[in-house]
Amino acid sequence: MLDFWDYLDRLIAESRIVIDRPRGSAHPHYPELIYPLDYGYLDQTHAIDGAGVDVWLGSQSERTLEAVALTVDLHKRDVEVKLLLGCNAAEKQMVLDFLNGSSMRAEIVYRDAGLAWLKSRRSVRRFSSQEVSRHLIEQILAAATWAPSAHNRQPWRFAVIAMAQHKTRLAQALGEAFQRDLALDGLPEHEIVAQVERSRQRIQQAPVVILLCLDRSAGDVYPDEKRQQAEYLMGVQSAALAGGYLLLAAHAVGLAGVWMCAPLFAPATAQQALDLPLTWEPQALILLGYPAQVPPARERRPIEEIARFWY
Ligand SMILES: Cc1cc2nc3c(=O)[nH]c(=O)nc-3n(C[C@H](O)[C@H](O)[C@H](O)COP(=O)(O)O)c2cc1C
Known about the structure:
Layout: H1 4-13, E1 17-21, E2 38-42, E3 53-57, E4 65-73, E5 78-85, H2 89-99, E6 104-110, H3 116-119, E7 126-127, H4 134-144, E8 156-161, H5 164-184, H6 189-205, E9 208-215, H7 225-252, E10 256-260, H8 262-265, H9 267-273, E11 280-289, E12 291-293, H10 303-306
Parallel strand pairs: 3-5
Antiparallel strand pairs: 1-2, 2-3, 4-5, 4-6, 7-12, 8-9, 9-11, 10-11
Helix pairs in contact: 4-7, 5-6
Bound molecules: flavin mononucleotide.
């Protein structure tokens, strides 16, 4: 059965969006209130105030509806529903702050119990040339550190590169290692050159490159091999969780990224290229930037296939 959100999707799909209050413009009655995003309405629809259904339009290229804002206005004595289209987490917060700034109070209601934004993360491999501020990267790293870790050792380490010459050095070194591996596979020379070049370009063209490492000195030390191996695995799992959190945090603030496994095949090469401490074992390369092209969602296996319940 189609639900409330499906009906709203249909209303949006069948309507023209009119933006009559663009981002940066002032409220007609409260000039101190500046619209933080494009604001308008769905043409040929009707809300409680007789005008069209209100719409806030965010920066995401896919104009999906993940949330609505509910408002109560004691001055106008009305209650409204405002649609938040294509808004990332930061933009939803901006709308909330704006709405809570006048005679109104607002609350955001999320589709899919708030999980829709999580499901809308994609591995993005093409980025715009827009720079990413160090401040934003630091916020994302701080969010990543809220991942769980074995014994709370937080064994993750991040080598963050935005400077072109360092990206080139890393891309060059990883490219040479990749070339050697592909030669061992017996691939034809032109195929090797093309694959290595593609990988090198991807690293060089990403606005920010993060080498996610595991600090081997952070874990417990055991006398036996079995527990030592388990401890190592716990470290790898903890670092990977931080990488997953990092990708989700990036997505939440409107950035996008992709996980690249290249350094796993040449950890010493990556470590040396950046002159990292010897205990920092590279686990993955995470490319980040503002998305230029968001690929379509890749299919997920159904729950029945991947889970067994004793419920
Ligand atoms: C451990 C791991 C290694 C990955 N390695 C690469 C990689 O080397 N290159 C790449 O383009 N994507 C890589 N990915 C991204 C996956 O291809 C991607 O997550 C998957 O296709 C699902 O797409 P989605 O993330 O957009 O949902 C990797 C992901 C993980 C978790």
